[in-house]
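Example 3.2
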Amino acid sequence: MKSTAFFGLGRMGLPMARRLAAAGYPLRTAVHKNPAPAEELRSLGAAVSASPGEAAAGADIVITILPADREIEGLLLSPEVFGAVKPGAVIIEMSTGSPGCAKTVAGRYAARGVRFFDAPVSGGVKGAAEGTLTVIGGGSPEVLEEIRPVLEKMAARIFLVGDVGAGKAVKSINQIMVSANTMIAAEAVSYARRLGIDPARMLEVVSASTGASAALSAKFDKLVNADYTPGFTLALMKKDLKIALSEAGDLPLPVANLVYQLLLMAGPDRENLDYTAAAGLLGGPGG
C-alpha cells in the first residue's frame, strides 16, 4: 500500500484518516494545535512526525482536508512541505476551497513533477465516519485510477467532473443548493406548524412528492428539535457561500445571496453551531 501523509484531522479529516488506518494504509501526520487527533491515529498505527515537512517527505500520497484557501496554501506552499513532497507523488486536496486556489497549488507542484488531484467531498461527518462520502474530482483520469483504491476507503461515490479546479467548482454549486434547500425546509417546518400539520406527517408526504430534497430528510430532526449540535457549522457554510458568490463574479445569484445574508444575520454567537441554526431567523425553533 502507498505511504500516505494526512493533514487536517478535524471533524471530517479524523474519521477519514481512521478509515485509511483501519484499511492498513501506512499513515503519517503531524500535530497541529490539538495533539489529541494525531495521538489517536498513533494508537491506530500511524507515525506522528515532528513537523508537516517530515511527515510529507517521501510519501507516495499527500492528503489534505483543511478549512479554506489560506490554510491550503499555508501548508502546501510552505517551503518546508513544498520542498519535502517527492516528484511522482500525488497530492489529493479534499478541502472545500476555491477553484483558483486549486489551480495555483497544482501549477506550482507540476513544475516539480508532483501530480495534484482536486477532490472535495460531500456527505458530512456521518459520511466520513461510515465511508459513504461523495468525492467530486478534478484532475487527470489516469491519476484518478491510480488513487481510486485510497478514495474508495473513504467514499462510496467518486465522480470526475473535469480538470483541476472543476471539483471545487462543482462542490461550490452543491453548497449553494444544499444551503438554499435547507432554508426552504426550515420554512416548510414552520409553515406546517402554523397550519396545524404534524411536521413528521408533512415529511412523510413531501418525501414521496416533488418537494422532496436530501436537505429536508438529512436536516429534518435538527430543524424540528432545534438541535443545532454541529455537523457542518454555520461558519463553514458562510465560507462556502462566500466562495460561490465570489466565483460568480457579475452573474446574479439572488437566492444564494439571500441565504448568505440569512447566515450572516445569524450572528457570530452561532458560528460554531450547525448551519441549521439560521432557521431561527425564519420563525423556526430556537428563534
